[in-house]
Amino acid sequence: MMNVKQKGFTLVEIAIVLVIVGLLIGGVLKGQEMITNAKLKRIESDNAGLAAATFSYQDRYLQLPGDDSAATGRFDFYTTTVALGGAGFTVLAGEADGGGDGVIGVGTDWDSTDANDTMVAASAETSKYFGHLRAAGLIPGGAGTGTARPSNAYGGLIGIQNGSLLIAGHSTIFGQLEGAVARILEARLDDGSPISGRMQSNLAAGSMDFVAAHPLAGTTVYSEAQRYNVAFRL
After folding, report:
1. Considering only CA atoms, which of 213, 196, 216 is closest in space to residue 205?
2. Which of 135, 205, 206, 222 has CB atoms 3.0–4.6 Å from 183's, for a disulfide?
3. 3-state DSSP call for residue 120?
């Protein structure tokens, strides 16, 4: 009888394959970590940038963006027809102005806006806030007639609100952040709790209004299964 020689992988070959697979998995995980870190840094950078822009505007014009009662006269293009949404649009005298009371949008939610994202008399100061900053060249964007809010690294909107959760004063708000991301930001920037400190959060479907008792009272950690709106005190 003829002996049939069976062929297969040697232990060395199997070890090499396992090493290659391990390197590939490690590379994927490292890539995901780098993407997450980049998004976290963008959130931190966007928040710091808005704070700096707000204080720069206040220092330059002695009024807060959004609340500026002299914005129409301060920026020429508020009386100029501009292309917006495919049509000419003119901001009439006074429509871009805020109340000038030193507060951005008393009693106004951070995500309130007019239907067309344009600067009209009925626009909330929390919407005009972004138009004024764009008009002053302090944040990216076109003519200051647009009140559209920028998006954050996780796709949610960015806004501003006076009195949010248990935070007195103005806060920037980043919407729809993943629970794991909010937890990391808390650890890096605040006290680690979603219900106290200069950074506070509520579930994305919940209100960010100022309250006597935090809506997440008793919660000590962020849930990775949830998304949150996160407020950062200016």
Report:
1. 216
2. 222
3. coil
Tokens read off for 27: 């590379």
Cα separation, 132 vs 54, whole angstroms: 10
Q: Cα separation of 219 and 52, whole Å?
A: 31
Q: What is the pLDDT of residue 90?
A: 55
Q: Which of 111-120, 142-151, 216-225 has the highest average model confidence (pLDDT)?
A: 216-225
CA distance 117 to 131: 10
Q: Is the pLDDT reported for residue 62 higher than 80?
A: yes
| Nearest Cα to Cα of residue 104 among 135, 67, 158 | 67
- At 172, is the secondary structure helix, strand, or coil? strand
pLDDT > 70 fraction of the chain, expressed in percent and rounded: 77
Q: H helices within 147-215, ranges in order?
A: 179-189
End-to-end CA distance of the chain: 88
